[in-house]
Design a protein that fits this description.
The structure is a single chain. 37% of the residues lie in helices and 21% in strands. The protein has nine helices and nine strands. Strands 3-2-1-4-5-6-7-8-9 form a nine-stranded mixed β-sheet, with helices on both faces. The relative contact order is 0.16.
Length: 268
Protein backbone atom coordinates (compact mmCIF):
# COMPACT_ATOMS: atom_id res chain seq x y z
CA UNK A 1 0.00 0.00 0.00
CA UNK A 2 1.38 3.48 -0.84
CA UNK A 3 2.10 5.72 2.11
CA UNK A 4 -0.49 8.39 2.81
CA UNK A 5 0.48 11.81 1.52
CA UNK A 6 1.06 14.44 4.20
CA UNK A 7 -1.94 16.67 4.83
CA UNK A 8 -1.40 20.36 4.14
CA UNK A 9 -1.40 22.55 7.25
CA UNK A 10 -3.96 25.36 7.63
CA UNK A 11 -3.48 28.01 4.93
CA UNK A 12 -3.32 31.63 6.10
CA UNK A 13 -2.88 34.66 3.86
CA UNK A 14 -1.31 37.93 4.98
CA UNK A 15 -1.96 41.13 3.02
CA UNK A 16 0.58 43.64 4.30
CA UNK A 17 3.78 45.56 3.74
CA UNK A 18 7.31 44.20 3.77
CA UNK A 19 9.73 45.03 6.60
CA UNK A 20 13.27 44.69 5.26
CA UNK A 21 14.56 44.37 8.84
CA UNK A 22 12.49 41.22 9.34
CA UNK A 23 10.82 42.23 12.61
CA UNK A 24 7.33 43.25 11.52
CA UNK A 25 5.09 43.22 8.45
CA UNK A 26 4.98 40.31 6.04
CA UNK A 27 8.14 38.83 7.53
CA UNK A 28 6.73 38.73 11.07
CA UNK A 29 3.45 37.34 9.78
CA UNK A 30 5.06 34.44 7.93
CA UNK A 31 7.36 33.61 10.85
CA UNK A 32 4.38 33.55 13.22
CA UNK A 33 2.36 31.33 10.91
CA UNK A 34 5.20 28.85 10.58
CA UNK A 35 5.83 28.84 14.35
CA UNK A 36 2.17 28.05 15.01
CA UNK A 37 1.81 25.30 12.45
CA UNK A 38 0.22 27.08 9.48
CA UNK A 39 1.26 27.53 5.86
CA UNK A 40 1.67 31.27 5.35
CA UNK A 41 1.12 33.02 2.02
CA UNK A 42 1.48 36.69 1.18
CA UNK A 43 0.16 39.61 -0.82
CA UNK A 44 2.58 42.52 -0.61
CA UNK A 45 1.01 45.98 -0.52
CA UNK A 46 4.15 48.04 0.01
CA UNK A 47 7.90 47.74 0.32
CA UNK A 48 9.70 49.54 3.12
CA UNK A 49 13.35 50.28 3.78
CA UNK A 50 13.30 49.60 7.50
CA UNK A 51 15.67 48.64 10.29
CA UNK A 52 15.93 48.84 14.07
CA UNK A 53 16.03 52.65 13.92
CA UNK A 54 12.88 53.22 11.90
CA UNK A 55 11.48 53.43 8.38
CA UNK A 56 13.77 55.14 5.91
CA UNK A 57 11.46 54.80 2.91
CA UNK A 58 8.18 53.23 1.78
CA UNK A 59 6.87 52.46 -1.70
CA UNK A 60 3.25 51.49 -2.28
CA UNK A 61 2.60 48.75 -4.85
CA UNK A 62 0.08 49.32 -7.65
CA UNK A 63 -3.47 48.09 -6.99
CA UNK A 64 -3.12 45.84 -10.04
CA UNK A 65 -0.17 44.05 -8.41
CA UNK A 66 -2.13 43.55 -5.18
CA UNK A 67 -5.12 42.14 -7.06
CA UNK A 68 -2.94 39.81 -9.13
CA UNK A 69 -1.13 38.40 -6.07
CA UNK A 70 -4.42 37.83 -4.28
CA UNK A 71 -6.14 36.09 -7.18
CA UNK A 72 -3.06 33.96 -7.83
CA UNK A 73 -3.10 32.58 -4.29
CA UNK A 74 -6.81 32.39 -3.54
CA UNK A 75 -7.96 30.95 -6.87
CA UNK A 76 -5.41 28.14 -6.91
CA UNK A 77 -4.32 27.35 -3.34
CA UNK A 78 -7.24 28.69 -1.33
CA UNK A 79 -7.16 30.18 2.16
CA UNK A 80 -8.68 29.38 5.55
CA UNK A 81 -8.05 32.77 7.15
CA UNK A 82 -6.76 36.19 6.08
CA UNK A 83 -4.85 38.83 8.03
CA UNK A 84 -4.44 42.40 6.82
CA UNK A 85 -1.74 44.82 7.92
CA UNK A 86 -0.16 47.87 6.28
CA UNK A 87 -2.40 49.02 3.42
CA UNK A 88 -0.88 52.50 2.98
CA UNK A 89 -3.54 54.37 0.96
CA UNK A 90 -7.29 54.74 0.39
CA UNK A 91 -6.94 53.01 -2.98
CA UNK A 92 -5.27 49.94 -1.48
CA UNK A 93 -7.71 49.79 1.44
CA UNK A 94 -10.63 49.84 -0.99
CA UNK A 95 -8.91 47.36 -3.34
CA UNK A 96 -8.32 44.88 -0.52
CA UNK A 97 -11.83 45.36 0.88
CA UNK A 98 -13.33 44.56 -2.52
CA UNK A 99 -11.19 41.42 -2.80
CA UNK A 100 -12.21 40.24 0.68
CA UNK A 101 -15.91 40.97 0.24
CA UNK A 102 -16.62 37.39 -0.81
CA UNK A 103 -13.65 35.48 0.59
CA UNK A 104 -15.86 33.48 2.95
CA UNK A 105 -13.24 32.84 5.66
CA UNK A 106 -12.30 34.64 8.90
CA UNK A 107 -10.56 37.99 8.38
CA UNK A 108 -8.32 39.61 11.00
CA UNK A 109 -7.86 43.34 10.38
CA UNK A 110 -4.83 44.96 12.01
CA UNK A 111 -5.43 48.64 11.12
CA UNK A 112 -1.74 49.55 10.99
CA UNK A 113 -1.23 53.31 10.85
CA UNK A 114 2.07 54.05 12.62
CA UNK A 115 5.20 51.94 13.08
CA UNK A 116 6.77 51.14 16.46
CA UNK A 117 9.21 53.99 15.77
CA UNK A 118 6.45 56.50 15.04
CA UNK A 119 6.71 56.42 11.24
CA UNK A 120 3.45 56.93 9.33
CA UNK A 121 2.32 53.78 7.45
CA UNK A 122 -1.24 54.78 6.53
CA UNK A 123 -2.25 57.98 4.79
CA UNK A 124 -4.49 60.23 6.91
CA UNK A 125 -7.15 60.20 4.19
CA UNK A 126 -7.29 56.37 4.31
CA UNK A 127 -8.85 56.26 7.79
CA UNK A 128 -12.36 56.73 6.45
CA UNK A 129 -11.88 53.87 3.99
CA UNK A 130 -10.74 51.65 6.87
CA UNK A 131 -13.88 52.55 8.84
CA UNK A 132 -16.39 52.18 6.01
CA UNK A 133 -14.90 49.54 3.69
CA UNK A 134 -12.51 47.31 5.66
CA UNK A 135 -13.74 47.07 9.25
CA UNK A 136 -17.22 45.81 8.23
CA UNK A 137 -15.48 42.73 6.77
CA UNK A 138 -13.46 41.94 9.90
CA UNK A 139 -14.07 38.88 12.00
CA UNK A 140 -11.69 40.49 14.49
CA UNK A 141 -10.16 43.99 14.39
CA UNK A 142 -7.01 44.45 16.48
CA UNK A 143 -6.19 48.16 16.94
CA UNK A 144 -3.73 49.40 19.54
CA UNK A 145 -4.63 52.49 21.56
CA UNK A 146 -3.10 54.94 19.07
CA UNK A 147 -4.98 53.34 16.18
CA UNK A 148 -8.14 53.22 18.28
CA UNK A 149 -7.84 56.96 18.94
CA UNK A 150 -7.38 57.71 15.25
CA UNK A 151 -10.40 55.62 14.27
CA UNK A 152 -12.77 56.69 17.06
CA UNK A 153 -11.46 59.96 18.50
CA UNK A 154 -11.35 58.31 21.95
CA UNK A 155 -7.98 58.51 23.69
CA UNK A 156 -8.13 55.64 26.16
CA UNK A 157 -6.30 56.18 29.44
CA UNK A 158 -7.89 53.27 31.30
CA UNK A 159 -10.13 50.25 31.00
CA UNK A 160 -13.37 52.25 31.04
CA UNK A 161 -12.17 54.22 28.00
CA UNK A 162 -11.24 50.97 26.28
CA UNK A 163 -14.85 49.82 26.67
CA UNK A 164 -16.17 53.06 25.18
CA UNK A 165 -13.73 52.86 22.29
CA UNK A 166 -14.59 49.23 21.62
CA UNK A 167 -18.29 50.13 21.42
CA UNK A 168 -17.50 52.84 18.86
CA UNK A 169 -15.32 50.47 16.83
CA UNK A 170 -18.08 47.84 16.79
CA UNK A 171 -20.42 50.44 15.28
CA UNK A 172 -18.24 50.32 12.14
CA UNK A 173 -19.19 46.69 11.58
CA UNK A 174 -16.55 44.18 12.73
CA UNK A 175 -17.89 41.07 14.48
CA UNK A 176 -15.31 41.32 17.29
CA UNK A 177 -12.90 44.04 18.41
CA UNK A 178 -9.68 43.47 20.34
CA UNK A 179 -8.57 46.79 21.84
CA UNK A 180 -4.93 46.33 22.79
CA UNK A 181 -3.97 48.18 25.95
CA UNK A 182 -0.25 47.56 25.81
CA UNK A 183 0.51 51.30 25.87
CA UNK A 184 -1.13 51.74 29.28
CA UNK A 185 0.95 51.48 32.47
CA UNK A 186 0.79 48.34 34.56
CA UNK A 187 -0.31 44.97 33.24
CA UNK A 188 -0.54 44.38 29.50
CA UNK A 189 -4.33 44.20 29.23
CA UNK A 190 -6.44 43.70 26.10
CA UNK A 191 -10.24 43.85 25.74
CA UNK A 192 -12.04 41.50 23.35
CA UNK A 193 -15.74 42.10 22.79
CA UNK A 194 -18.52 41.52 20.29
CA UNK A 195 -20.87 43.91 22.08
CA UNK A 196 -22.43 41.11 24.10
CA UNK A 197 -19.48 39.24 25.59
CA UNK A 198 -16.41 40.83 27.18
CA UNK A 199 -13.12 39.00 27.61
CA UNK A 200 -10.18 40.68 29.36
CA UNK A 201 -6.74 39.23 28.65
CA UNK A 202 -4.02 40.19 31.12
CA UNK A 203 -0.33 39.40 31.12
CA UNK A 204 2.65 40.63 33.14
CA UNK A 205 4.61 43.43 31.51
CA UNK A 206 8.13 42.31 30.61
CA UNK A 207 11.01 44.72 31.07
CA UNK A 208 12.17 44.44 27.47
CA UNK A 209 12.31 47.30 24.97
CA UNK A 210 12.74 44.96 22.00
CA UNK A 211 9.09 44.66 20.96
CA UNK A 212 9.16 45.47 17.25
CA UNK A 213 6.47 43.49 15.41
CA UNK A 214 4.16 42.86 18.36
CA UNK A 215 0.95 43.92 16.62
CA UNK A 216 1.63 42.05 13.39
CA UNK A 217 2.55 38.95 15.36
CA UNK A 218 -0.59 39.01 17.50
CA UNK A 219 -2.94 39.49 14.54
CA UNK A 220 -1.24 36.70 12.59
CA UNK A 221 -1.42 34.35 15.56
CA UNK A 222 -5.15 35.03 15.88
CA UNK A 223 -5.58 34.30 12.16
CA UNK A 224 -3.83 30.96 12.60
CA UNK A 225 -6.16 30.05 15.47
CA UNK A 226 -9.20 30.91 13.36
CA UNK A 227 -7.84 28.89 10.42
CA UNK A 228 -7.53 25.95 12.82
CA UNK A 229 -11.25 26.25 13.56
CA UNK A 230 -11.00 27.82 17.00
CA UNK A 231 -13.63 30.19 18.36
CA UNK A 232 -12.55 33.84 18.48
CA UNK A 233 -12.00 34.07 22.29
CA UNK A 234 -9.88 30.91 22.27
CA UNK A 235 -7.88 32.04 19.23
CA UNK A 236 -7.17 35.37 20.94
CA UNK A 237 -6.22 33.73 24.24
CA UNK A 238 -3.68 31.43 22.58
CA UNK A 239 -2.34 34.27 20.44
CA UNK A 240 -1.85 36.43 23.53
CA UNK A 241 0.09 33.63 25.23
CA UNK A 242 2.33 33.24 22.18
CA UNK A 243 2.98 36.97 21.87
CA UNK A 244 3.70 37.36 25.58
CA UNK A 245 6.41 34.71 25.27
CA UNK A 246 7.77 36.34 22.11
CA UNK A 247 8.01 39.71 23.86
CA UNK A 248 9.79 38.20 26.85
CA UNK A 249 12.34 36.68 24.46
CA UNK A 250 12.73 39.78 22.26
CA UNK A 251 16.36 40.47 21.42
CA UNK A 252 18.62 43.36 20.47
CA UNK A 253 19.23 43.79 16.76
CA UNK A 254 21.08 46.71 15.23
CA UNK A 255 21.38 49.86 17.32
CA UNK A 256 17.68 50.55 17.94
CA UNK A 257 14.58 48.52 18.82
CA UNK A 258 14.93 44.80 18.28
CA UNK A 259 12.13 42.39 17.37
CA UNK A 260 10.08 39.96 19.37
CA UNK A 261 11.33 36.39 19.02
CA UNK A 262 8.93 34.47 16.79
CA UNK A 263 10.83 31.23 17.39
CA UNK A 264 10.97 31.48 21.17
CA UNK A 265 9.23 28.15 21.73
CA UNK A 266 11.81 26.22 19.72
CA UNK A 267 14.62 27.97 21.62
CA UNK A 268 13.08 27.68 25.07
Amino acid sequence: MPANKPTAPPRVLTIAGSDSGGGAGIQADLKTMLALGAHGMSVLTAVTAQNSLGVQGAWELPAEAVRAQYRSVVDDIGVQAVKTGMLASPLLVETVAKLLSDVGVPVVVDPVSVSKHGDRLLADDALDAVRTALLPLATVATPNLDETAELTGIKATGERDMCRAAEQLLSYGPRWVLVKGGHLPGEAVDLLTDGTEQHWFRAPRHDNRHTHGTGCTLASAIAVGLAQGRAVPEAVRLAKEYVTGAIAAGFALGSGLGPVDHGWRTRA
